[in-house]
Specification:
The protein is α/β, with parallel strands linked by helices. The protein contains eight helices and eight strands; from the N terminus they run H-H-E-E-E-H-E-H-E-H-E-H-E-H-E-H.
């Protein structure tokens, strides 16, 4: 994997895949105890709930710029603030660096959130693709530490290192790509058989309500839907939707499919349904 070239290619494709971005009231780059973050605020100039966001890209690719369009639209549709985390990426900084950075930002929110009109008692965690694993594990870590999140939003998420993928026969995300991403994030020799890399190994009871979006033509579809079923079986409120005829991580690619904007609108509606007391 030439990860440097792949990172640049992902950046170069933003204009074609994402298109013109949504204007929001305020976008600021901040330092959260040493971790770069980008804050999006589009609601009223008042304290609002926060969506703590982990971008996708196989823990190797992606950054604040590749996901700027999606984060802007999430802020506009939800009325919540979106705080996107520029976590350290593999292979330079493998597991557990990304988790450490997200937890640092979550701690920063508790101390400094109100200075930025953010409600530290109303924080949801979200992520797409590889960021979905970061979000799911962060939600479980928060529960275990007594710092509960009000919801978790998982968009086409990675949820298992088993890599038991269906043969979909399309040119989307490929199994070999996931092998390379996993090897960069949790290199051979790292024990992947624990809950920080395999959420199926954790007790699901008491986890925050979940919104899970999957795509019919995505090899991650089945594991994400199994995880949704596991949460529901444990009594966790879950809204899970499979979008037919579309591809991996489609909500980020707003210029390529109308389903992207529909999915973001659904995420906003689901957050309101699951956390009614936090409707802006």
């Amino acid at each position: 994997m030439d990860h440097v070239a792949q990172r640049q290619a992902m950046l170069d494709a933003v204009g074609e895949q994402v298109g013109p971005v949504r204007a929001v009231r305020l976008v600021r780059d901040l330092d959260a105890d040493g971790v770069p973050v980008r804050l999006y605020q589009d609601g009223a100039d008042a304290v609002t709930p926060v969506l703590l966001y982990a971008h996708g890209g196989g823990w190797v690719l992606g950054d604040l710029s590749t996901h700027d369009g999606l984060c802007r639209l999430l802020a506009a549709e939800t009325g919540w603030a979106v705080l996107a985390v520029d976590y350290r990426r593999a292979p330079e900084s493998p597991f557990p660096a990304a988790f450490e950075d997200i937890e640092t930002v979550a701690g920063w929110l508790q101390v400094h959130g109100r200075q930025h009109a953010l409600d530290p008692t109303a924080v949801a965690v979200a992520g797409d693709s590889a960021g979905g694993l970061l979000a799911a594990v962060t939600a479980r870590r928060g529960r275990d530490a007594g710092r509960d999140f009000v919801a978790q939003v998982l968009i086409c998420p990675v949820t298992s290192p088993a890599m038991d993928y269906p043969d979909l026969g399309n040119d989307g995300l490929q199994p070999q790509e996931m092998v390379e991403f996993w090897d960069a994030f949790a290199p051979p020799g790292v024990d992947r058989h624990h809950a920080d890399l395999d959420p199926f190994l954790a007790d699901a009871a008491g986890l925050p309500p979940a919104v899970i979006v999957t795509a019919e033509l995505d090899i991650l579809r089945d594991e994400a839907e199994r995880y949704a079923a596991r949460l529901a079986a444990a009594g966790v409120p879950v809204i899970a939707t499979r979008y037919q005829g579309t591809f991996h991580n489609f909500p980020r690619k707003l210029a390529l499919t109308r389903d992207a904007a529909v999915a973001v609108a659904q995420i906003a509606a689901a957050l309101r349904a699951l956390t009614g007391q936090y409707v802006p």
